[in-house]
Amino acid sequence: MAEVSVTKDAAPAADELVALRNVNKHFGALHVLQDIDLTIDRGEVVVVIGPSGSGKSTLCRAINRLETVESGTITIDGKPLPQEGKELARLRADVGMVFQSFNLFAHKTVLENVMLGQVKVRKAEKSAAEDKARKLLDRVGVGTQADKYPAQLSGGQQQRVAIARALAMDPKIMLFDEPTSALDPEMINEVLEVMQQLARDGMTMVVVTHEMGFARSAANRVVFMADGRIVEEATPDQFFSHPRSDRAKDFLSKILHH
Ligand SMILES: Nc1ncnc2c1ncn2[C@@H]1O[C@H](COP(=O)(O)OP(=O)(O)O)[C@@H](O)[C@H]1O
Ligand SMILES: [Mg+2]
């Protein structure tokens, strides 16, 4: 299989935010990340697609160190990922993550969910944290739900709260790992629209998704993964109209014709 990832010079570009260089990881005998080289520039929206089990989630989790890697380097703003302690908590705030499952705190209100990290990690005053939480909840369209508990909200609303919670930390980058996969179909668009708006506002984003409409309209670049490798990187137009590898052609024929 031909690897067609873009190679860049060693000196970091001024607009480079996240850089993975020759990253490798195993789960036992499974080589889940193989020689991953990926650069994400400030303001860029990168959509990661590929078959189930290809390593997309592991890649995301490695970027905020929910998974460690065995070799290679991952840098954010030119600095290697911190190993532990307060700096690691700060990294997790700098790298907002939204998962398939909403993982909000069930025993806290929507408002408290969005305030918590601001107070604990960013050391914000409670009143300032509340103001910001309310603004962000309005921005994602759930301002009127602030005093409810997560279970009282629909899946689409909960996922928008999860986005607001990550945004409350003023992240440098947002990672989305199949954020709409667990949603009922009628709720997918409300979440994608919030993500579209974020992209338009200039947020740096890595989005693992099978929503090809989103990829086509919001992505600057599509990264196609298979078997732990980045097999192709291309603009959405190039990728969807002229995939180069057999692996990508095969994958696209399956997802576009079902
Ligand atoms: N904690 C883990 N322990 C062992 N194997 C894992 C673990 N997490 C993921 N895997 C395996 O690694 C492979 C890649 O997983 P993942 O990154 O979740 O892929 P994707 O998100 O592309 O579906 C899969 O084969 C999965 O079963
Ligand atoms: Mg996954």
Strand order of the largest sheet: 6-7-8-3-9-10
What is the general shape?
globular
CATH topology: Rossmann fold
Give the SSE string: EEEHEEHEHHHEHEHEEHH
Bound molecules: adenosine-5'-diphosphate, magnesium ion
Give the number of domains: 1
The end-to-end distance, rounded to whole angstroms, is 25 Å
| Residue runs with pLDDT of under 50 for 5 or more positions | 1-9
CATH fourth-tier homologous superfamily: P-loop containing nucleotide triphosphate hydrolases
Question: Can you give a write-up of this model?
Answer:
The longest helix is centred in the last third of the chain and has 16 residues, at 185-200. Helix content is 37%, strand content 24%. It has a six-stranded mixed β-sheet, with helices on both faces. A four-stranded antiparallel β-sheet has the order 2-1-4-5, covered by helices on one side. The chain is built from nine helices and ten strands. It has one domain (16-256): P-loop containing nucleotide triphosphate hydrolases (Rossmann fold). Adenosine-5'-diphosphate binds at residues 27, 30, 32, 50, 52-58.
Structural topology:
Elements: E1 16-27, E2 30-41, E3 45-49, H1 56-63, E4 71-76, E5 79-80, H2 85-94, E6 95-98, H3 110-120, H4 126-139, H5 155-167, E7 173-177, H6 185-200, E8 204-208, H7 212-218, E9 221-226, E10 229-234, H8 236-241, H9 246-256
Parallel strand pairs: 3-8, 3-9, 6-7, 7-8
Antiparallel strand pairs: 1-2, 1-4, 4-5, 9-10
Helix pairs in contact: 3-4, 3-5, 4-5, 5-6
The chain binds adenosine-5'-diphosphate and magnesium ion (MG).
